[in-house]
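TEACHING EXERCISE
Course module: macromolecular assemblies
Task: Read the component lines below, then compare them to the predicted structure of the full complex.
Student: A.B.
Group: 4
Components provided:
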Amino acid sequence: MAEPKQVPESYYSDLKSLQAIDFTLVELTLYLDTHPDDLEALKQFNSAAKKSAELRETFEAKYGPLRQFGHSLSAYPWQWIDTPWPWQV
Amino acid sequence: MATSRKWYSPYVSPMDPCPPLSPVSYETPVQLYLGFQPRGMEQFSPFEALAHGTLWPGLYTPYTNPYLLKKRGIDTNG
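Instructor-supplied answer key:
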């Protein structure tokens, strides 16, 4: 029975940095909801959004799609059904 | 570590079938006093923010276990 391939160690550090950036985006979104005219926060939000997109792109290039329904690209063959699933990470 | 927990001793009637463990504590987080969040508050780095659960150290109010103090005896906080 073939042993499913383990993800490399760098998977977890990349995922963590992506999660950290996404969390700051969540916080900044909530902050900007109540402070629409705060320019520094808005600049920080946009730069964090760009950074998050970059991080996600490199992550998906290395480890496969993160989001479904067209939000992520997939290599051949269809990677969505590969392990690890989010709850297995 | 200064906690936002406050204590009071409730009145306990002799008829009270189930008297509280006095003194009783309650949490007073920052947002009670802060009202509208000011601009340009100091921020955590992304990793710290992820660990602390908030982007702003000023709004970080962790749960502080009141029962630890109680184990060390009632008199520590009157």
